[in-house]
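ok so heres the complex, two chains, lmk if somethin looks off
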Amino acid sequence: MELKQRITEMAGLMSISGHENYDRAALLDQLADIFDEVTTDPMGSHICIRRCGRQGAPKILIDAHFDEIGMMVTEILDGGFLRVINIGGIDTRILQAGEVIIYGEKPIYGIIGSTPPHLQKPGDAKKLKPINELLIDTGYDKDELEKLVRLGTPVGFVPAYTELLGGKLAGKGFDNKACGAAAVDALSRLDRAEMAGDVYLLLASQEEVGLRGGETGAAGIDPDYALVVDVTHGSAPDTKKDEAFPLGEGITISLSAATDLRLTRRTVELAREKGIKFTRVVEAANTGTDANVTQLVCCGIPTVVASLPLRSMHTYQEVLSPDDAEELGKLISAFVCDTKIAEDFAR
Amino acid sequence: MKENQLNGIELLRALCLEFGPTGCEHNVAAMIEAQLGDICEIRRDRMDNVLAHLPGSGPRIMISAHMDEVGMMITSIDDQGYLRFTNVGGIDSRVLCGRRVQVGTAEHRIPGVIGAKAIHLQSADERTQTTPVDRLYIDIGASSREEAEKYVDIGDFATFDSDFVRFGQDDRLMRCKAIDDRLGCAVMIETLRALVARGGERPYDLWCSFSVREEIGKSGAKVAAYAIKPTYAIVLESTAIADLPDVPANARVGEVGKGGALSIADRSTIYDPAMLEFAMSCAREADIPCQLKRYISGGNDAGHIHKTGDGVRCLAISAPTRYLHSGSCVAAVADYEHIREMVLAMLKNWDKMN
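and the predicted structre for the whole thing:
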C-alpha cells in the first residue's frame, strides 16, 4: 500500500482524545499482518508489537500519539442545535460554516453556524466567537436529537482529503496520525532479522489534552530507549523563520535539554549516514511532545524526538508533504535497525 | 425526458457544484442552456445573461435569478507560491479560514485550502480576532512562485469547494456553496419545463433571466430588464435567515422549512403590495407554505429591475437560507419545492393578478 493511502486512512479514523477506541476495528484492519500483537491499555493507547525473533533483545519504543483534537456536546437546544466545548487546542478561526460529524448513537452530520451580517453589531466581524458560543446545526428536532446525542458526545471534523500540487495532502487528523502511518509503513517494509530489537509502536492516547497516554503507555512497555515522532509547524507566510519548516524538505530532529543528548547525537549521525533529509531544530527546554513524559517513567528512558512539518496544525485542513513522511519512515527504520544504538542503550 | 436532463434536487446539486463566481458565470450559463435544450427560445446577451422566452398574449412578466456566487479573486502570488486574494461579493472573513477552494478560471481549476497559522504560534490577540482577508492566503501546494504561476494567474477566480450534502432528520436539509442563487436558477428551469409541458395559450408573455453579477451589485439583471421591458418582475433569491437559538424572535427574519420568504421591503426595494397579496392568496389557495420576511435587510436584483424604464412592479420570493455567503449555505429541500409550486400557482392564476 502506498504511504499516502496509509496516511489518509489512519488520519480519517475518529480518534478524538478519550475516544481512541471508537474506530478500533478499522485501525486493526490497517495494522493487520504487520504486528505480532496489538493490545489496548487502560488509558486507551494502542500498543503494536513487532518482534525481531531473538531472545533478550532490547525493547525499542516508537511513540506516535494517536489521538486528535475535537469537541464534545455540552448542551442540546431547541431547533436541533448543539453547543460544544473543545477537546484539545482548536483554532476557532476555522470553525464557522465548517462541517462536523456528531458521533452519537449514529453519526450525524452538522454545520457550525454563523450569525448573518445584518444581525452583527459594528466590530463583531473582527471578533472571533469563543467555541462555547458557537452553534452546531443538525437539522433535527430537539426531541429526536436527544435520543441520539447526550452531553459529552464527541464531535469531530469530516474526513475529506484534497491532493494539492506536488502530491501534498490537505485534511484533518494528520497531527499525529501521519506520523503513526509513517511508522506503520516503515515497519511493514522491515525484515524482522534486520531489527535491532523488539519494536513497540505506541499509538498513544490523550496527547492533545496533556501528554497522558504516552506516559502510561511507556511505563507499561518499559522500553530500553525511545523515538518520539510528532508533527512540527510547517512554514507559511505568517510563520517566523525559526519556528516553522518548509514542506518537502525533510523532517526535523530536536536538539533539546529535555531529551537524551547521546541518543540524539547518534540519531543525527545515523540520519546523515542514511542520507535522510532533515534539519536540526533547537527546542531548548521543551519539545512539546510525548518525549516530555516517556523519558521519565520506570528507570528513565533515553528518548529522541523527530518531527514532520505540518502546515495549519490543529485545523481540518492541515497540509503535509508525503515526501517528508517518507523521510520520517526512513529514520524510523534506521533507528530500529541500528545496532550501535542497541548496544549503547540496551539495559 | 431527455438524456442527461436533471430534475429537482439533482438539478440543484449540479448547478450548485458548478464553478461560477461573479464575473465568471460561463460554466453555469452553459449548464443552464444544456438543461433547457430547445424547449424554448434562448439567447445570451452581451453581458452573458441567459434569457429564455415563452411567448404568450398578455402582460410581460420577467422572472430573474442570478447565476453568480460569492467568491474570491487572486491579487498576487508570493515567492513561496502562496496566493493572496480578495473577496468578490460579501463574504464574512470568519468563514474563510480553513476552507477548501477551487482556484482558476472557467476552463481550468486546481484545488487549494485557505491557510491558517497554527494556534500554537498565534498571539493572544490573534486567537480572539478574525484574521482579515488581506492576511489570509491560499495554499495550493506549490513550492515556488514559478510552480504556482504554471497553474494560476493574478485575476483568476476562486470559489468555495463544497460537497452537496443532504442532512438532518429525514435528510430534510441540504448544504452546499452557491445555493444562493442556483436554487432560483433551478426553480426557473423547472418552471419553464412545466409550462412547456402544460402547453396551451398563456395569458402572459414570459421571460426568464438567468442573470450575472448580482453579488457585487453591478447587476446583469438590470440590462436584462432593459431588454425585456417587463410590466411585472418576480425575483427568485436566497435570503439570510437567522432562525438560531441565540437570535431573539423579532430578529429571526423567518424560518427554514416554512416556505418561500416574501419581501415587503428591503434595503433597495419597496415591493409591489398587490403582487405580494396575489402571491399569498395563490399560495393559500393551493395550500403551499410561505412566509413574510420579518426583517428589513439585504437587497437583491429587484433593486435594479424595479427602477428600469418607467418602473417595474416587483415581487421577491427567497429561499430561507442559513449561513449565506459561505461554503456551507443550508436550506430546506421542502422550501425548494414550495417555491417551485408557488411560482407555478401564480402563473396559473395570472389572470387574477391586477
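quick notes: The domain at 71-160 of chain B is CATH 2.40.30.40 (Elongation Factor Tu (Ef-tu); domain 3). thats all i got rn
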